[in-house]
From TrEMBL:
GO terms for molecular function: magnesium ion binding; phosphatase activity. One of its GO terms (cellular component) is cytosol. It comes from Craspedostauros australis. This is Uncharacterized protein. Pfam families: Hydrolase_3 (PF08282).
C-alpha cells in the first residue's frame, strides 16, 4: 500500500490549508508536525453548503511537549540574551517581544504562518497553565551565535545529555524541542503506527530540521536548495528547488522508472 504523509516543522494550525489543497484521495492524512513532537491523523470535513469552506479535524497519535522546567529555562535564557521567545499552546502563538526588532520578527512569523500572535508580559505563566508547548522558538538576528550560547548553557544546566533539549538552527530563529524529539523520531513513530518499515520510506527535505528525517528514511531526497549538512546526509540531491516543484518532479521520475507501487488510479498527479 502507498501512504502519503506530510512532515513539517510547523504547528498543525498552519497546515490545514495545505491538507485541503492537496486533497489526497485517501483519508485520514498522516501529519508529523512541530518537528516530530506531534503525530496526527487529519480528515477534511466537506461542507454541506456550497458557500461554506472545508475544515480539518484530527486525532492525536502521539505528542511529546517540551517539559515545563525546560520551557521555563528557555524563556529566562532567551530574555537574558535579548531575544524574543514564542511558542504555540492550543493552536495559539504566544510571544514576549520587548523591542522593535522583536515585533518585526513576530510579525514576520505571522506573515509566514498566517497565525495571529498573543503578546504576553507575565513570562508565559498563563500560557503554560493552558498547556505545554510542542516546540519553542527563540527569534533572533544571529541564530549561529545564539545556538552556541544555548548549547553552552544547557550543558552547564543539565549534566545528563539526555535531559538537554533538542536545538535546531533556523534562518532567523532557534527551535527548541523535547530532548528526545526530532523530525526523524516523529517519522519513526508514524511508521510504527502504520506497521511500515522505515526502509520503504521516501523522505524529502532541505533544512537543518530535516537531518535525522533524511537519515532515517529508506531513501532520503534533498532539494537543490538544501543546506550542505543535509545534502551530505541524503541519498540523493535532486536538481530542483522547492519553488520548482522538486517533490512532484522527482516522484514523477520515480513512477516512470517503476520505483513506486501505486494502486489503480493513484499515480502521481500535479495539483
Amino acid at each position: 500500500r502507498l501512504l502519503r504523509a506530510i512532515a513539517t516543522g510547523r504547528d498543525i494550525s498552519t497546515v490545514y490549508e495545505h491538507i485541503i489543497k492537496l486533497n489526497f484521495p485517501s483519508h485520514p492524512t498522516p501529519v508529523i508536525c512541530s518537528n516530530g513532537a506531534r503525530g496526527l491523523l487529519c480528515n477534511v470535513e466537506k461542507p454541506t453548503n456550497i458557500s461554506d469552506d472545508a475544515h480539518v479535524t484530527f486525532d492525536v497519535l502521539f505528542e511529546t511537549p517540551v517539559p515545563k522546567h525546560v520551557a521555563t529555562e528557555v524563556i529566562q535564557l532567551s530574555k537574558s540574551l535579548g531575544c524574543c521567545c514564542q511558542f504555540y499552546v492550543a493552536q495559539k502563538i504566544y510571544a514576549d517581544p520587548s523591542r522593535d526588532q522583536h515585533f518585526e520578527h513576530t510579525e514576520k512569523y505571522q506573515q509566514l504562518t498566517g497565525c495571529e500572535t498573543v503578546y504576553v508580559k507575565d513570562d508565559f505563566r498563563a500560557a503554560l497553565e493552558i498547556g505545554l508547548p510542542s516546540k519553542m522558538l527563540v527569534l533572533c538576528a544571529d541564530p549561529d551565535s545564539i545556538l552556541v550560547k544555548f548549547q553552552s548553557h544547557m550543558e552547564a544546566t543539565f549534566a545528563n545529555p539526555e535531559d538537554r533539549p533538542t536545538l535546531i538552527r533556523g534562518n532567523w530563529f532557534l527551535e527548541v524541542l523535547h530532548p528526545s524529539i526530532c523530525k526523524g523520531v516523529g517519522l519513526e513513530k508514524m511508521c510504527k503506527h502504520f506497521h511500515m518499515p522505515l526502509s520503504e520510506v521516501i523522505a524529502f527535505g532541505d533544512g537543518d530540521n530535516d537531518l535525522e528525517f533524511i537519515q532515517m528514511a529508506g531513501r532520503g531526497v534533498v532539494m537543490k536548495n538544501g543546506r550542505d549538512m543535509v545534502k551530505e546526509a541524503g541519498d540523493v540531491v535532486i536538481p530542483y528547488t522547492n519553488d520548482e516543484d522538486g517533490v512532484i518532479q522527482t516522484l514523477k521520475v520515480m513512477e516512470f522508472a517503476g520505483h513506486l507501487r501505486f494502486g489503480a488510479g493513484l499515480g502521481v498527479k500535479q495539483t
